Amino acid sequence: MVGFMEWLFFIIGIGMIIKVLLNFCHSLTILFAKTDFSEYGYNSWALVTGASDGLGLAISEFLASQGFNIILIGRNQEKLTKVSGQLKEKYPIQIKIIVKDFSVSSANPQTFFLDIKEQTKNLDVSILVNNVGSGAGANCFASLAEERVLWANAINLWPAVFLTKLYLPDMTLRKNRSAVINITSSLALVKLPKCSVYCASKGFMHSFSMIVAEEAKYLSSKNKGRLDVMSVLPSCIDTQMIKMREIKPLLVNPYDCAFWICKSIGSVSYTGGHWKHEYFYLLWTLFGSFSFQLINIFARLLKNKSFY
Ligand SMILES: NC(=O)c1ccc[n+]([C@@H]2O[C@H](COP(=O)([O-])OP(=O)(O)OC[C@H]3O[C@@H](n4cnc5c(N)ncnc54)[C@H](OP(=O)(O)O)[C@@H]3O)[C@@H](O)[C@H]2O)c1
């Protein structure tokens, strides 16, 4: 005779197996995802924040290679002009540079971001990439200076929130496809001590992104165009930002990462980005913080293989 407890454990077990299978299917979707960039409209623009370096630069380059005109936003005029020159040399596209230091956006966010919208008012923006982000410094929250908290939140939160607010309404009215890509981090899920402000801001961005993604599905069904919102939760990308290069198994090239991110637009509402990070995400949902140990064991087993 099967008792109540046996049934309960049986149902919980089945539920967990279904969850694992669904997560696995999600990871497979990323592997086979493909985006048709011609659907975004001829001569449309992609706006990328933090475009002068790292992942933002790599995404700008990938989208330029697909024929998008690019609005490069960053704080360093010299670096942006150099990037603009390099992209124009390689691809027959238009580039607009907007110099903005997001760390001062807290003082008056409405005016700060409205100025960006004003500068792009005649451009048909089809893709918004909320990429800019920065850590607040590795310190316990109790010891973190208030200015540092404000500084990091001004870079990590307001650009994504206000730019999405300003560009989303126009995107919902476009006849062609549109997309918002929010670069968050695997630290949206991993609760890392001495990284409270960064982890929490990325957690906020991920939740924000997932909710707007659901709303976008509803708005798209009402209008003719299609709007996709995607949260990207990468682990370690080889850029200026990353200091811990010993996390080799998860370290990926920003250009590879940009390729995987852009090819997933419209297929999923969240992704680890690069396939390695997608599978880390899968491991994390199954094993939590034990995933790090598993990755290290795996990496040691494959020491001389291409996993590095
Ligand atoms: N690297 C990783 O391992 C990793 C992992 C997970 C998530 N992420 C996320 O990925 C995104 C890109 O990171 P990344 O690694 O490419 O960083 P990065 O190499 O440091 O590049 C950051 C970009 O943002 C710009 N930027 C920084 N502060 C700014 C400010 N106050 N105002 C305007 N622009 C500013 C930088 O401009 P300058 O050229 O002037 O410095 C640069 O163009 C971030 O949101 C980050 O949180 C990164």
UniProtKB/TrEMBL annotation:
<dbReference type="GO" id="GO:0016491">
    <property type="term" value="F:oxidoreductase activity"/>
</dbReference>
<feature type="transmembrane region" description="Helical">
    <location>
        <begin position="7"/>
        <end position="33"/>
    </location>
</feature>
<protein>
    <submittedName>
        <fullName>Uncharacterized protein</fullName>
    </submittedName>
</protein>
<dbReference type="GO" id="GO:0005783">
    <property type="term" value="C:endoplasmic reticulum"/>
</dbReference>
<dbReference type="InterPro" id="IPR002347">
    <property type="entry name" value="SDR_fam"/>
</dbReference>
<keyword id="KW-0560">Oxidoreductase</keyword>
<dbReference type="InterPro" id="IPR051019">
    <property type="entry name" value="VLCFA-Steroid_DH"/>
</dbReference>
<dbReference type="Pfam" id="PF00106">
    <property type="entry name" value="adh_short"/>
</dbReference>
<dbReference type="InterPro" id="IPR036291">
    <property type="entry name" value="NAD(P)-bd_dom_sf"/>
</dbReference>
<feature type="transmembrane region" description="Helical">
    <location>
        <begin position="279"/>
        <end position="302"/>
    </location>
</feature>
<keyword id="KW-0472">Membrane</keyword>
<keyword id="KW-0812">Transmembrane</keyword>
<comment type="similarity">
    <text>Belongs to the short-chain dehydrogenases/reductases (SDR) family.</text>
</comment>
<dbReference type="InterPro" id="IPR020904">
    <property type="entry name" value="Sc_DH/Rdtase_CS"/>
</dbReference>
<keyword id="KW-1133">Transmembrane helix</keyword>
